[in-house]
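USER: If only I could read backbone structure tokens as easily as an amino acid sequence. It would mean a lot if you studied the pair and described how this chain folds. Here is the record:
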Amino acid sequence: MNKTVVIDRVTGHIVSPRAAAALAFLVGLLLAPCSQAAEWSLGPEIRTGGRYEDNPRLREGGDEDEITGGYLDLAAVAERRSDTSTFQIRPRLYFDRYDDSDEDSDDQYLDTVWRTRGQRSTFDFRGNISNQQVRRGETSEVDFAESELDEEDQSTSGRIDRRRDRLRWRVRPQYEYDLSQRTKIGVGAEYVDVDYNNEELGEASDYSNATGRLFIERELSQKNRARLTGFASAYDSSDVNNDSKSFGGALSFERDVTETFSWYASGGAAWTEVEAGDNNEIDENQTSFLFSSGVKREWERTRLQAEASRSLDPSGTGFLKTRDGVRVNLRHQFRPRWTGDLGVYAFRDEDVDDVVEVNKRDYARILTRLSWQMTPEWFIEGSYTYTYQDYDDTPGDADSNAVALGIAYRPVRLRWSR
């Protein structure tokens, strides 16, 4: 099927019309006039340094390539706050330059959050656009999202052995209405679209995934909340003629034990119909049991966040997958200016259907990081990352060691009112 594309004259990357429309919409939100008095803030975030990695493509069988080079990470966060609304937008540019030019990358990001509040209702919109090299776009991050602008991308496939570009954009609107002081209902949707500049069957197939959900939440007490959610989703990948539909529900419970300690648990199931192939030769119905359980705890100088989950996610392989994962992040302030991080993320990906086996893999990443605050605005950061990956359909396994040392500039944001 032919596609109409737009070429970015600055970067030379392919931009789909849908992504261009989404970008125009996000920028329009920032430029939209508003009569309310509001406080604005603006602040840059700059990081640069050197990096070494002994197997950046996670290749197996002794075909590893070492790389040494530098990176530059440029971002700016603009925020507008009024009595009834909040708007944030963050453009970001990331550059890698190595002794092997084939590993160089120029990645672009645009993230936004827009929230408005009425007397009994809340509307929340989140949008993300990324244009990345696959080596960064198809590997999974260790850290939990730390700000409203951050996004946890569960759609990664780990297929990074070849160079290609990935354009991904996501929109997620949600509306909530308070039925009473303790009960609210809501409706939400999420649409994700991914385009590769060089598709390859089983590794990089363009796809889209649309999800709609309805929920009702009840505040059981001052510290306890319960939510019942129903959802439906549609996954489409034209490269393999895959048209998968899922329906399901989940019940979740949250408890704030103290101001510094909380936990949550959720359980549910999804029924999925997979139809793929030129003549729909793949026709499978599967039931997947889903869950998530996590804890957040803070001490005087230490913060812990941990989660175990099973999720149903799209993938660039052209087929849906289930992911059983465990993630742990630990941050400790050794001294007023010294901070350390330890992150672990390990998971097992499986195919939803029993016919095609392209998603089965084990993955683990361990990150250690140390930061020294030289001044209120300048930081020196050093990190070590270990990554392991093993595909069932590929002989052997792969691992990688990476070290980085850099400097970061994060000044206090400029603020003004208008």
